[in-house]
Amino acid sequence: MTVPYIDLQQINSRFEASILEEFEGVFDSGRYILGDRCSAFEFDFASFCGTSQAIGTGSGLDALTLIFESYIQLGLLKQGDKVLVPAHTYVASIMAIIKSGLSPVFVEPNLDTFNLDFDDLENQYSKDVKAVLAVHMYGQLVDRDALLSFCKSHNLLLIEDAAQAHGAQYSDTIRAGNIGDAAGFSFYPTKNLGALGDGGMITTNNSDLAHVARQLRDYGRSSRREFSRLGMNSRLDEMQACILSLKLKALNSDNQLRRDIAKRYLSEIVNPLIVLPFYSGGSDHVWHIFGLRTDRQTDLLSHLAAQGVEAMVHYPIPIHHQSVYKHWTDRDLLLTALISQTQVSLPISPVMTATQIDQVIYAVNSFRS
Ligand SMILES: *Cc1c(COP(=O)(O)O)cnc(C)c1O
Hints:
- By secondary structure, the protein is an alpha/beta fold.
- The chain has helices spanning 8-13, 16-29, 36-49, 60-73, 91-99, 118-124, 144-154, 207-216, 238-248, 251-268, 297-306, 334-342, 354-365; strands spanning 53-57, 82-86, 103-107, 129-135, 157-161, 182-186, 200-204, 221-223, 226-227, 290-293, 343-346.
- It folds into two domains: 8-107 and 114-248, 3-Layer(aba) Sandwich (Aspartate Aminotransferase, domain 2); 251-365, Aspartate Aminotransferase, domain 1.
- Helices cover 39% and strands 14% of the residues.
- Strands 1-7-6-5-4-2-3 form a seven-stranded mixed β-sheet, sandwiched between helices. A two-stranded antiparallel sheet has the order 8-9. A two-stranded antiparallel sheet has the order 10-11.
- β4, α7 and β5 (157-161) form a beta-alpha-beta unit.
- α2 (16-29) packs antiparallel against α9 (238-248), α3 (36-49) packs parallel to α9 and α4 (60-73) packs parallel to α5 (91-99).
- The model has no long low-confidence stretch (mean pLDDT 97).
- Pyridoxal-5'-phosphate binds next to α4 and α5.
- Residues 59-61, 89-90, 92-93, 135, 161, 163-164, 186, 188, 198, 200 line the site of pyridoxal-5'-phosphate (PLP).
């Protein structure tokens, strides 16, 4: 039997009856965009993160782009300002910066956590840098204290890309989405909190920012018939909003199941060819991705495939080698490139069975040179 990397049908079938019931409700309401269900989910998600504001969007990319564009509208950022961002991330983090007219400055990763490296963050700082886009890679929070003191000492805006970290918590009251000035989430189906389509969310405690972002996601609308800003169309629809409200109730327990699997991988995978990731053991990690490293990436991938285990690489082409970004840096990002060549992601999800977890562990442990 093959262990799939992720089985979305199984993940969602746990909610099938209630989703279908909600669907009927939305159908009958006759209101499909920006209705009560979107507002209710925004309220629930803000309370969950501990922020005063949440603004539903059409995707995670749009959530991040809307944050930057709102700061530009508020005069807190201007075209050409530089934004520090980890180079080991998904293409969307960088795209949001450039699409908003800002310039990314790439920061190398830490090889144990896959999160941005603080020495390099400090080294890449210059007077033109006005913000940091911190990505909680694989679901693990970037060191909050270090991040806040860095941003404070240079007077920088701190924006979180929390697309992989729904529910990761620094303390009982401080979760991903409530660490910096604003955060962008994605509800792409594979994320820890996933819709049955596209969706995203901005969280913030800044009501001015929230006000502008709400206008910008709806063409820049300032009242029913008036438009005062050049916005976009990026809204979270009613169907996705009510599916997400349902699934939010299971997020903490789903994240705990992911942590339990990660703990088994960390204690039971023993193989000199494998470097396991760093984990504090706490709730600051929600294991969107379980990424390990090996010098023998291609061989491990084919060994796992032969053993019936679907694995992935995050991300096979490093950001600075993507043709779309080639004009944005001439720096040799050696550690970022090294991760692309050595990283392997194992299956991890709340619907994995004990037998499937055993099979993954056996497959990795039986890998030989
Ligand atoms: C998924 C993801 C995004 C983009 O989200 P979409 O909803 O697919 O646009 C942004 N950043 C990171 C780190 C992601 O993993």
